Sequence to fold (200 residues):
Amino acid sequence: MKNKIKVYRAMHDLSQEALAQKMGVTRQTILAIEHGKYDPSLILAAKIAKLFNVRIDDVFLLDTLEE
Amino acid sequence: MKRNYFYLFVAAVAFIEVVIFSVSVDIVDPLPSVLAIILGILGIYFVRMHLDEVIEDERTQKITEITALRTLQISWVGLFLFALWIIIEALGEEFRHFNRPLGIFGFRLLAILAGIIVLYVALSIYYNKKYGV
Fold:
């Protein structure tokens, strides 16, 4: 699963720590998601998309080859 | 309380527990150790409730789940092999000199391992019903 969290974070001028705090997760979790090492739950993905005011599939992209 | 102070607190509690345990062994009285463990757990639980930062989320829970399962699997296989080895040792050469206390220990260990499987299946059925249809 690929994602554009880093891009949206930059657009909203949010650090990893600030995003983690808003989402109620650790900074390491945001880092792991950004690096593609951890796929977030549907709830967390929805919360991130809602924060950036976009749809989930604008932030998270299913890598069909990988899946 | 900040996360790092929490980890320092846990380390301090662990150190104090070790000291109390060694004193407890010296005076041949288990009461201080038992009290220290209970107070330590309560103290860590209380401090953890007052943390400012998140230390557990869905990723850490997933890590805990996988770690717990792997630990259970490895421990189970290790203890099973150990129990078999104990029983073979207890049987002695050509099964003539059965070491009864050692054999009983081996069979009890096997019974505990069987109990773990029963518990695992029971919990598996429970959670399947809870999160299934």
